[in-house]
TrEMBL record:
Keyword Transmembrane: no
UniProt superkingdom: Bacteria
Keywords: Molybdenum, Oxidoreductase
Family annotation (InterPro entries): Ald_Oxase/Xan_DH_a/b, Ald_Oxase/Xan_DH_a/b_sf, Ald_Oxase/xanthine_DH-like, AldOxase/xan_DH_MoCoBD1, AldOxase/xan_DH_MoCoBD2, AldOxase/xan_DH_Mopterin-bd_sf
Alphabetical list of Gene3D superfamilies matching this protein: Aldehyde oxidase/xanthine dehydrogenase, a/b hammerhead (3.90.1170.50), Aldehyde oxidase/xanthine dehydrogenase, molybdopterin binding domain (3.30.365.10)
Domain Aldehyde oxidase/xanthine dehydrogenase a/b hammerhead: start-end pairs: 21-130
Organism the protein comes from: Teichococcus aerophilus
Keyword Protease applies: no
Pfam families named among the record's database cross-references: Ald_Xan_dh_C (PF01315), MoCoBD_1 (PF02738), MoCoBD_2 (PF20256)
Protein's name in the database: Xanthine dehydrogenase family protein molybdopterin-binding subunit
Length: 751
């Protein structure tokens, strides 16, 4: 555990003032000289090919500069490589149309308005084929995989155990398409100078963007500079490269002028990724006293025709409860859709919903309290692999959450806790998310004024990463928070990995701490080797930095500025790389090349590392209208060391609020005839507003885990959403006796 005083203390965001005063430069705010404006032309059909364009009217728009299509630039870029491997749909490389809203042209003009007008005047002659929208659409191809072929688990004989079980649950569940809808749009600005390219684009991985773009444009990564100082929400949607970037770079090269793209919100639904709809078949077998004897989980996920992208959340569901017989399997369904991708707790959010609903159904079948059922099946050993958990405080989360929520006052019989016209329901569910960590590098510079500068190509996607970096450096260097300046989001800085998978805080704080330790060691060495200082002759390892001083074990001390003067004639600069346990030795080099490298919570040899939580929800369902309200929710989480409880609270709370939306509001509606998203705007894509969100309580259960990583950090960005879908569905069942197994839960399901 860290011993510093700033670690674990609530701190307001160091970038907060810049954000609320408009000084924070988001990528599309970056100033470039005399930019031209791009507007995307997107496909109006979901499947077929382009016979030809009629560009006459578009070319006549005053201010028009250029129109890019497969006819004139198709060979200039490769398709982007999805981070998940496999392939994705084309854009301007060919005349093929693989989904609605596919980029098929880019219009560039002197103004945004002129580009938009000309784009609307591009006429396209399509050869149309019947498209398949999703599950059950004629022409959708189901790719059935064998258990074990993929990331699946097979332990014991689940089939036989299920057949022999005295109590069973056998049910099917579904989750819808969802889009991230970050406030910031998918902007890109490209500028060329002397054959070198600068890209301003919101990103969760600037080195990844650089590396992928270099491949697409057949350039050296070092000739591309990516800048993303601030990101206005990402949630996974800005993790991998999209097709737009290369074409904007090509547009800028053709014009020899910077080009800026700000796509529309509806275009964001099809030019980037989304959360795919999923289906699940769960079979649980148990003894009459509640011990699980069989667990089967089969999932189906929608993806594009060429992609193999899947989230396979059975990697999480197979290891939540002790069970001797496990069988999991994930299948893909290929349709005429854009390729899906990461979205907050990508595997766990859709896959824990069926498991935690089924556990609630099992508790009801056993006439047992749902928390008791979890307790009976709690484990410190992963049943899927036999490895120990590095730490697992699930039941402590349940105990603390239940106490705060008042769970003992729950009448177990559904439909009994009525308050006037409202049916009251209480539900709970488990949240779990792997503790991941990536390699990272950082440079720390100490100035003669005793101030520090930390440089790291990390990403603050709204999470508070700037502040986490400052806290770590100030804590380690014995400085005030205000004495630390942080630079991030730029490929000119030391590399950090993908800000995703709840891994970033763990990855970057270790790198920053290591560079700070380098500073301390250099100051200490100079101090003990000097002839005249108070620390002369001491063991350098015994010296610490605190409260602006270098201090010895017997109270010797010297101002940090003085100590610096002994070690360096000007500034003192230390670069450090941190390679966490579980990543290959070349992982840091991979990050610099823009490839993902991460130690995953279920990938280590010695232990399984996961954060856990217990989530409690009260719903009120109106007896006549059946509208569902969520007056309160309590989440108790154990995620190891919390670096900044203030922003951690916001992360957990944000996850829980999003969970209310996911369970009750959110779904991207698809026209099955045209394979087209129909509510592609924030007016019709429903998310919770303030009046949908009442009391949200977050409990941070203390947890020390020196095995997960030296600082004990597990990550918190995603676990807060994971249990909410099931907790709400379970509460709705408790209120009404109706078990809704398809999200979102709507009035019509409860009539
Ligand atoms: Mo997050 S969905 O891991 O970017």
């Amino acid at each position: 555990m860290p011993d510093g005083k700033l670690f674990g203390q609530p701190a307001i965001r160091i970038d907060g003032r810049a954000k609320v005063t408009g000084r924070a430069r988001y990528p599309s705010d970056e100033v470039v000289a005399n930019p031209a404006w791009a507007f995307l032309v997107t496909s109006a059909i979901a499947r077929g090919r382009i016979r030809g364009f009629d560009l006459q009217e578009a070319r006549a728009v005053p201010g028009l500069l250029d129109i890019l299509t497969h006819d004139n630039v198709g060979g200039e870029a490769e398709k982007p490589q999805p981070m998940s491997g496999g392939s994705t749909t084309p854009t301007l490389e060919s005349d093929q149309i693989c989904h609605d809203g596919q980029i098929i042209g880019i219009v560039v003009a002197e103004s945004f308005e002129a580009a938009r007008e000309a784009a609307h005047k591009v006429r396209v002659d399509y050869e149309v084929q019947q498209a398949s929208a999703s599950f059950d659409s004629p022409g959708a191809e189901e790719e059935v995989r064998e258990a074990g072929e993929h990331k699946d688990y097979q332990v014991g004989d689940a089939e036989a155990a299920f057949a022999a079980a005295e109590v069973t649950i056998d049910a099917r569940y579904g989750t819808p398409t969802q889009h991230h809808n970050a406030i910031e749009l998918f902007t890109t600005t490209c500028e060329w100078r002397d054959g070198k390219l600068t890209v301003y684009e919101p990103s969760q991985f600037v080195y990844g963007l650089r590396g992928s773009l270099a491949k697409q444009l057949r350039m050296e990564p070092g000739d591309i500079h990516v800048v993303s100082r601030f990101v206005g929400g990402a949630f996974g949607s800005k993790g991998g490269i999209t097709a737009r970037t290369a074409w904007i770079a090509i547009a800028a090269r053709r014009l020899n002028r910077p080009v800026k793209l700000v796509p529309t919100r509806d275009q964001g639904f099809t030019i980037a990724t989304y959360r795919a709809e999923t289906r699940h078949h769960i079979q649980l077998g148990a003894t009459p006293d509640g011990k699980l004897t069989s667990f089967r989980h089969e999932g189906w996920e929608v993806t594009s025709r060429p992609s193999q992208y899947n989230v396979s959340g059975t990697e999480t569901t197979a290891r939540i409860y002790a069970c001797p017989n496990i069988l999991t399997k994930v299948n893909l369904v290929h349709a005429d859709r854009n390729t899906p991708g990461f979205m907050r707790a990508p595997p766990d959010t859709p896959y824990m919903f069926p498991l935690e609903s089924a556990m609630d159904e099992l508790a009801a079948a056993l006439n047992m309290d749902p928390i008791e059922l979890r307790r009976i099946n709690d484990t410190q050993t992963d049943p899927a692999t036999g490895k120990p958990y590095s730490s697992r405080c699930l039941m402590r989360c349940y105990d603390e959450g239940a106490a705060r929520f008042g769970w003992q006052r729950r009448d177990a019989r559904p439909g009994t806790m009525r308050d006037g016209e409202w049916l009251v329901g209480w539900g709970c569910a488990t949240a779990a998310y792997p503790a991941n960590i990536g390699p990272a590098a950082a440079r720390v510079t100490l100035s003669p004024e005793g101030r520090a500068r930390v440089q790291i190509a990390a990403h603050d996607i709204g999470t508070g990463a700037y502040t986490v970096v400052a806290i770590t450096a100030a804590d380690r260097l014995g400085l005030e928070l205000g004495q630390v300046v942080v630079e991030m989001g730029d490929t000119d800085l030391p590399a950090a990995g993908l800000a995703a998978g709840s891994s970033h805080t763990a990855g970057i704080s270790h790198a920053v701490a290591k560079a700070c330790e380098g500073i301390r060691a250099r100051l200490a060495e100079a101090a003990v080797l000097s002839n005249d200082g108070p620390m002369a002759g001491l063991d350098p390892a015994s010296l610490v930095l605190s409260a602006g001083m270098l201090r010895g074990p017997a109270g010797q001390s010297e101002e940090i500025q003085k100590a610096l003067g002994r070690a360096a004639s000007g500034v003192l600069e230390v670069y450090a790389e941190n390679l966490p346990k579980g990543v290959p030795p070349d992982a840091m080099g991979k990050i610099y090349q823009g490839q993902m490298a991460m130690s995953r919570g279920h990938g280590r040899e010695d232990a399984i590392t996961y954060a856990f939580g217990a989530q409690f929800v009260e719903v009120r369902v109106h007896a006549r209208t059946r509208e569902v309200r969520v007056p309160r929710a309590v989440g108790a989480f154990a995620s190891g060391t919390i670096v900044n409880p203030l922003t951690a609270h916001s992360q957990y709370m944000g996850g829980m609020i999003w969970g209310i939306g996911a369970a009750l509001h959110e779904a991207t509606e698809i026209d099955p005839r045209e394979a087209r998203y129909v509510n592609d705007n924030i007016a019709e894509y429903l998310i919770p507003v303030n009046s949908d969100v009442r009391s949200i309580e977050v409990i941070m259960v203390p947890e020390e885990d020196s095995q997960v990583n030296p600082l004990g950090i597990k990550g918190i960005g995603e676990v807060g959403i994971v249990g909410m879908n099931a907790a709400i569905a379970n509460a709705v069942w408790h209120a009404t006796g109706r078990r809704v197994r398809e999200l979102p839960i709507r009035m019509e399901h409860l009539l």
